[in-house]
Write a structure and sequence with these properties.
The protein has about 70 residues and is an alpha+beta fold. The protein has one domain. It is built from three helices and three strands; from the N terminus they run βααββα. It is globular and about 30 Å long.
């Protein structure tokens, strides 16, 4: 299970561009205003599998839920 943590000015267009190269159906889980990407990338670096993709572990879920409250 993987999750992409990134930012975009046009989420639908970004998903469409990623979907072309991905055999699995992608879905948007959460959209936030503001710049949280860099902080989350640093915090979750141990779970990174490449670029903006991370293993979806309990720790990653917890960090995302905590971020949701901010």
């Amino acid at each position: 299970n993987l999750i992409k943590i990134g930012k975009s000015t046009n989420v639908e267009k970004r998903i469409d561009s990623i979907q072309v190269a991905c055999p699995h159906e992608l879905r948007v889980v959460v959209v936030w205003d503001g710049d949280r990407e860099r902080r989350l990338h640093t915090q979750l670096n141990d779970y990174r599998v490449g670029g903006e993709w991370f293993r979806l572990t309990d720790e990653v879920r917890a960090a995302l839920y905590a971020e949701e409250g901010q």
